[in-house]
Amino acid sequence: MTIRIWDVETGAPIGRPLQGHTDIVWSVAYSPDGKYIASGSSDMTIRIWDTETGAPVGRPLEGHTDRVWTVAYSPNGQHITSGSSDKTIRIWDAETGVATGTPLEGHTEFVRSVAYSPNGRYITSGSSDNTIRIWDADTGATVGGPLKGHTDSVLSVAYSPDGQYIASGSYDMTIRIWDAETGAPIGRPLEGHTKAVWTVAFSPNGQHIISGSDDKTIRIWDAGTGTAIGTPLEGHLISVTTVAYSTNGQHIISVPVTGPFESGMPRLVPHLATLWRGTLSGCCP
């Protein structure tokens, strides 16, 4: 029910816990300027926090009728998008906290992940209905039909830095790459993980994809060929549910979970985060 900010280099907590949610916090996202954090919770709300003071900004964003799994800031920082177990996506004005337009409806099961395209024009979402959808961020209209191919819940989606591709990770143990304009799958599924893939991310130069899994490993993939690079990164004793690149592409941070919690779903443990230094030395100028 709390959020903490951590120093990536030292692993030390910064300031006091951010308190206000009344149930599990499933997702956090920084605003592009780093001044704010948005969080989504099982208490069905989104909250915005001042990163310098840790104080909540305004009132909770209310409107979802079930757990909020995922939140994301638009590239210009003006909007926040959220996905929920109520099967909808909502877009909020980041300054006023007011919902813009009506909920985006189309998924038939939980919305597990949302991401903005780099130009902010589109939102992509992954769902427990095994599909990915693309939405017009301004109108809320769907763009094309659902992206189908996964055989189980889509747990994570991410745009490439140039916005041309979408990567997705699924409970079916695979990663898929999609053409963001046509929705067509590119190549074969990326196979290697032996359990659910919770998280995917592109490197800053778009040449690599990293993934974290229930199999306790992180894998690095060539985004162009879909080939695994090197051996899996091992060291976590429990599932890896969040991975991210440093801005220079030289390091990866990963966050595990405690294990099954609340109907078999995991709980993040940020104090066990691992920084993988020089993982792809020289790969990403």
Would you kindly provide a written description of the structure presented here, covering whatever features stand out?
The protein is mainly beta and 285 residues long. It has two domains: 1-71 and 81-86, no CATH class; 149-179 and 186-285, YVTN repeat-like/Quinoprotein amine dehydrogenase (Methylamine Dehydrogenase, Chain H), CATH 2.130.10.10. Helices cover 0% and strands 45% of the residues. It contains no helices and 24 strands. The strands form seven sheets. Strands 3-4-5-6 form a four-stranded antiparallel beta sheet, with no helix packed on it. It starts with a strand and ends in a 9-residue tail after the last strand.
